[in-house]
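## retry 2 of 3
previous attempt timed out at serialization; input unchanged, resubmitting
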Amino acid sequence: MYIPSRFNFLEDSLLDDCKKSPIMNTDIIEKKDGYELQIDLPGVKKEDIQIEIDKGILSISVSISNSSDEEDKKYIRKERFTGKIKRSFNIGENVDEEDIYASFENGILYLNLPKKEEKDNKKKYIEIN
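## retry succeeded, writing output
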């Protein structure tokens, strides 16, 4: 998988058991003016998703619960994950944190991370008077 060097992927905190599921699979797409993350969250409600940024680290946390009457059920087999999941990404200094936009549609969380304006790093000559 190609991940741009300016957008460093950190190890996520998913449990090994959870890595077998389709929850929190992420595509990172570099565009001309920013990055787009597409994160699979099937069966998750928008209000169960929390997104935060701290010191250049973008973290997505999700709480998943199937129902409140879990104690009344006797499962023969249970493959659906319930609990909390968190993934973190180092977005570094190349992303404008103030303009990050998130949307959630059909079980997919979309995060748009605009790149910061690149400063003109060309040589500048100073005139001597």
